[in-house]
Design a protein that fits this description.
- This protein is mainly α.
- It has one domain.
- The protein is 83% helix and 0% strand.
- It contains 21 helices and no strands.
- The longest helix has 44 residues.
- It is globular and about 70 Å long.
- The N and C termini lie far apart (48 Å).
Length: 661
C-alpha cells in the first residue's frame, strides 16, 4: 500500500474527530434567552466579517491564479493554489463557527462547575485544531497522489494558497479585534469606569466578535499555513536532494504520527478539581511524549538513520521550550508581569516603559533555542534535510496547539456572555478564571506560532536556494547586501501599516462609543440598549479597507527585488527578513501579552485593584500592547511565509531574468 494512503487516513481521522467534537459541543444546552441573544449577536458579527473578507480574498486569488496559469503553462499550479487556499479558509471558517457556538455553552456549563466548563471549551477548541491538520494532510496527500508525482515543485502552490488566506485572516482579523478592544477599553474602562464586558458599552459585542475573527479564525489560518508550508518545504528539500524514497515519505508520516499523538493527548486534558492550567499543560506534555514515541517507532520501522530522529526530536523539544519561555515572560503572576504591574504605580509612562523593556529582553532566549534546534538538526544529519524534518517535528503538534489556542476566545466570550446576561457571581468567577488562563495560553501559543514560522521559513529558504541554484550567498556582494537591508526593513514597514490601521479604526470606535453614550438616553442607567451593530460595522469596514496595502507590500516586495536585483539579492532579502521578523514578532507579542496580564494582576486586587490609579495606568499599557500582541506581531508569521513562498513560486523567472543582474 502506498504511504500516501496512511497519511490520507490520518487526515480523515482528524476530520472525523473534528466532526465529533463539533456535534458534541452543539448538543450542549445554550442557557437563557438572554444568553442566546448575546451569542447570536456575536455569531452574526463574526460570520458577516468572514463573508465580506472572502470577497476581497477572491479578487486577489483570481488575479494570482491567472498569473500562475500563464507562468507555468497549465492549470496544475492553479489547482494546488486553490486547494491550499480552500483548505486554509475552511479551517478558519469551521473552527470559528463552532467557537461562536461553544462560548454560550461554556457559560452554561459553568453552572455545573469549572471542570464541565473547561471540558466544553476544550472540545469546542479542538474543532479548529484537528480541522487544520486534517485538511492540511488530506490536501497534500491528494495532490501527491493525483497531480504532482512528476513535479513536486507544484506543491508550493498549495503552500502559497494557505499563506495568502493566512495573511488576510491574520491581518484583517488582527485589525478588527484590536480596533474593537482598544475602543471599548479607552472609553468603557478609562473614561466611564465600566467593568469588562459591561452591556452598556456599545463596543462590547464588536470586542467579542474580534476575539473570534482574530484569535480563532486568524490563528487557525496562521498555524495551518505554518503546518502546510513546513511539510511542503521538507518535501521540496527531499526532492532537491535527488530522491523520492524514504526521505520523501518520512515528513508526511511524521505529520500523521503527530495527529495520533494529539488525539491521545486529548485524554489528558481534564480539569480535575477545577485545575484547568494543569490540564492544558498535561495535554501539551502528553502530545510531545506520545508523538516522540510514535516518531521513534516510525524511524525504526522505516530504517531511517537514528540521527534523523534526533533532528525531529529537536523540533519537538523546541515546541516545549518556546511554550515555557513565553509563559515565563507573559504568564499570570510571573516575575516580569509583576514588574510591569509594579511600574504602573508610577503612572502610564513607567508602565509602558517597563512593558517594552520586558518585551525586548524576552527575545534572547527564544532566539537561542531556535538557533540550537537549527544547529542540532543540521549537525546530526549533516544535511539541510535535518532542518526540514525538525520543523515538521515541531509543527506536528499543530492539533494540540490550536486546540489550546481556540480555548482562549471561547472562554473569553463565555465570560462576556456571563457578564452581559447577568449570571450569578459564582458562574462569573469560574468563567473569569478560565478567561485568565485562556489569555495566558493565547500568549504561549502565539510564541509557538512565531517559533514555528521562523523554523519553517528557514526550511523554505533552503528550498528557495535549491530552486534558484544558490549553493552559497556572498554577503560581500553589493546586491546581496542590498537584499539583506531590504529584507530587514520589510517587517518594520509592514508592521507600521498595521499599527496605523488599528489606531485609525480604534479612534473611530472611540468616537462612536462616546457618541452613543451622549445621544442614547438612559444608556448608562441600563434603561436603553446600545447600537451594537454600528460598532461591529465600523470594525468590519475599517479592517477590510486597511489590509490591502500591507498585503501588497508583502506580495510585491520580493517580486520587485527579484526582477530588478536578481536571485542573489532576493536570497539576501530572505536572509534579512527571517531573523528580523522573528525577533520583532517576539518582542511585540511578548510585550503585549505581559502588559495585558499586568493589567489583570492589578484587577484581582493588587496595588489598589480596579479603578485605582495603577489600574488606569495599566489599561493604557494594555491599550498599546493589544495591537502589538494580536495584530502586528502575529501577522509577521504570515508575512514571512508569503514572501518565502512567492519567492519559490517565481524562482524560474528570477533565474533567467533580472534588470541589474
Amino acid at each position: 500500500m502506498s504511504f500516501y494512503m496512511y497519511t490520507l487516513a490520518a487526515g480523515i481521522l482528524a476530520l472525523l474527530f473534528s466532526a465529533w467534537a463539533a456535534m458534541s459541543t452543539l448538543k450542549k444546552p445554550e442557557g437563557t434567552e438572554k444568553m442566546k441573544e448575546i451569542s447570536l449577536a456575536i455569531r452574526a458579527g463574526s460570520k458577516a466579517y468572514l463573508n465580506r473578507q472572502l470577497k476581497t480574498i477572491v479578487i486577489f486569488g483570481v488575479i494570482l491564479a491567472i498569473i500562475f496559469f500563464f507562468l507555468h503553462n497549465g492549470p496544475q499550479l492553479d489547482l494546488a493554489f486553490a486547494t491550499g487556499a480552500i483548505a486554509s479558509y475552511l479551517t478558519a471558517y469551521i473552527g470559528m463557527n463552532v467557537s461562536v457556538r461553544a462560548n454560550v455553552r461554556t457559560a452554561k456549563s459553568a453552572e455545573k462547575g469549572a471542570e464541565q466548563a473547561f471540558r466544553t471549551a476544550i472540545i469546542g477548541g479542538s474543532v479548529t485544531g484537528f480541522s487544520a491538520v486534517g485538511f492540511g494532510l488530506i490536501g497534500i496527500s491528494l495532490l501527491l497522489m493525483y497531480l504532482t508525482i512528476s513535479n513536486v515543485a507544484i506543491l508550493i502552490g498549495f503552500g502559497f494558497g494557505a499563506s495568502l488566506i493566512s495573511l488576510f485572516a491574520r491581518v484583517g482579523g488582527g485589525i478588527y479585534t484590536k480596533a474593537a478592544d482598544v475602543g471599548a477599553d479607552l472609553v468603557g474602562k478609562t473614561e466611564l469606569g465600566l467593568p469588562e464586558d459591561d452591556p452598556r458599552n456599545p463596543a462590547v459585542i464588536a470586542d467579542n466578535v474580534g476575539d473570534n475573527v482574530g484569535d480563532c479564525a486568524g490563528m487557525g489560518a496562521d498555524v495551518f499555513e505554518s503546518y502546510a508550508v513546513t511539510l511542503v518545504a521538507a518535501l521540496l528539500i527531499a526532492a532537491g536532494i535527488g530522491t523520492t524514497g524514504h526521505l520523501f515519505s518520512y515528513p508526511l508520516l511524521l505529520a500523521a504520527a503527530g495527529i495520533v499523538g494529539s488525539l491521545l493527548a486529548m485524554l489528558f486534558m481534564r480539569a480535575r478539581k477545577g485545575n484547568a492550567i494543569r490540564a492544558l499543560y498535561a495535554g501539551i506534555l502528553a502530545s510531545v511524549v506520545i508523538t516522540a514515541i510514535f516518531d521513534l517507532i516510525l524511524t525504526i520501522v522505516m530504517k531511517m538513520p537514528f540521527n534523523d530522529y534526533i533532528a525531529v526530536l529537536s523540533g519537538l523539544v523546541l515546541a516545549i521550550l518556546i511554550f515555557w519561555i513565553t509563559d515565563y515572560f507573559t504568564g499570570n503572576e510571573s516575575k516580569p508581569v509583576v514588574k510591569i504591574a509594579t511600574a504602573a504605580k508610577g503612572g502610564a509612562g513607567t508602565n509602558v516603559i517597563m512593558g517594552l523593556a520586558v518585551g525586548l529582553r524576552s527575545t534572547w532566549l527564544p532566539v537561542i533555542v531556535v538557533v540550537a534546534a537549527i544547529l542540532i538538526s543540521f549537525g546530526v544529519t549533516q544535511s539541510v534535510y535535518g532542518i526540514g524534518i525538525a520543523a515538521v517535528g515541531m509543527l506536528s503538534l499543530t492539533a494540540t496547539i490550536l486546540t489550546i489556542d481556540s480555548f482562549g476566545p471561547i472562554t473569553d466570550n463565555a465570560g462576556g456572555i456571563a457578564e452581559m446576561s447577568g449570571l450569578p457571581h459564582s458562574i462569573r468567577k469560574i468563567t473569569d478564571k478560565l478567561d485568565a488562563i485562556g489569555n495566558t495560553t493565547k500568549a504561549t501559543t502565539k510564541g509557538y506560532a512565531i517559533g514555528g514560522a521562523a523554523l519553517s521559513a528557514t526550511a523554505l529558504f533552503v528550498a528557495f536556494a535549491q530552486a534558484v541554484g544558490l549553493p552559497t550567498l556572498n554577503a560581500l556582494s553589493p546586491l546581496v547586501t542590498a537584499g539583506i537591508f531590504i529584507g530587514a526593513l520589510l517587517p518594520f514597514v509592514f508592521s507600521s501599516f498595521l499599527m496605523e490601521a488599528v489606531g485609525h479604526a480604534a479612534n473611530m470606535m472611540v468616537e462612536e462609543v462616546r457618541r452613543q453614550v451622549k445621544s442614547i438616553k438612559g444608556l448608562m442607567q441600563g434603561k436603553a440598549k446600545p447600537d451594537y451593530a454600528r460598532a461591529v460595522d465600523i470594525a468590519t469596514v475599517n479592517a477590510l479597507k486597511s489590509l490591502v496595502v500591507p498585503e501588497l507590500v508583502a506580495i510585491l516586495t520580493p517580486i520587485l527585488v527579484g526582477l530588478v536585483l536578481g536571485k542573489a539579492a532576493l536570497g539576501g532579502l530572505l536572509v534579512g527578513m527571517i531573523p528580523a521578523s522573528f525577533v520583532l514578532a517576539l518582542f511585540m507579542a511578548n510585550a503585549g501579552g505581559a502588559m495585558d496580564n499586568a493589567k489583570k494582576y492589578i484587577e484581582v486586587g493588587n496595588f489598589g485593584g480596579k479603578g485605582s490609579d495603577a489600574h488606569k495606568a495599566a489599561v493604557v499599557g494594555d491599550t498599546l500592547g493589544d495591537p502589538l500582541k494580536d495584530t502586528a506581531g502575529p501577522s509577521l508569521n504570515s508575512m514571512i511565509k508569503v514572501v518565502s513562498t512567492i519567492s519559490i513560486l517565481l524562482a524560474p523567472i528570477f533565474v533567467t531574468f533580472s534588470i541589474l543582474h
